Amino acid sequence: MSEGLSGFGKRSNLDPEDFYMSEEGFIVFTEKYHLKRGYCCKSGCKHCPYGYDKKTNTIK
User: Fold this and answer.
1) pLDDT higher for 40 or 7?
2) Which of 9, 20, 36, 39 gives a 20 to 30 Å CA spacing to 49?
3) Could you please report the per-residue DSSP string of 24-52?
4) If pLDDT is split at 50, 70 and 90, which confidence band does 5 have?
5) d(Cα 34, Cα 43) in Å, to the nearest integer?
6) Burial of 34 per CB tally in 10 Å (0-12, 13-18, 19+)
7) What pTM was estimated for this model as a whole?
8) What pLDDT sits at residue 6?
9) What pLDDT, in 10s, does the model give residues 10-37?
10) By the 8 A CB rule, do 9 and 3 touch?
11) Is 38 exposed, middle or buried, given 0-12, 13-18 or 19+ CB atoms closer than 10 A?
């Protein structure tokens, strides 16, 4: 994939504590990143601090 097509090609704007790479090579955003972003994206993120439940589509 071309770096120009990927929104993650600009990682310089992210702090090292904002994400980590999974064993499979995926970018995983941390709770700190989600709090800095300031809202829930309702994607069922692994470290969602907002309590979003993807099965019920609710925030606890």
Assistant:
1) 40
2) 9
3) TS-EEE-HHHHHHHTS--SS--TT-TT-E
4) very low
5) 12
6) buried
7) 0.70
8) 56
9) 556 889 999 999 999 999 999 999 999 9
10) yes
11) exposed
Residue 32, C-beta contacts closer than 8 angstroms, at least 6 positions apart: 17, 18
Domain boundaries, the chain: 15-59
**For residue 22, what are its two tokens?**
């999974």
Longest dimension (CA), the chain: 38
CB atoms under 10 Å from CB of 19, counted, come to: 18
Among 40, 42, 59, 41, CA closest to 51: 59
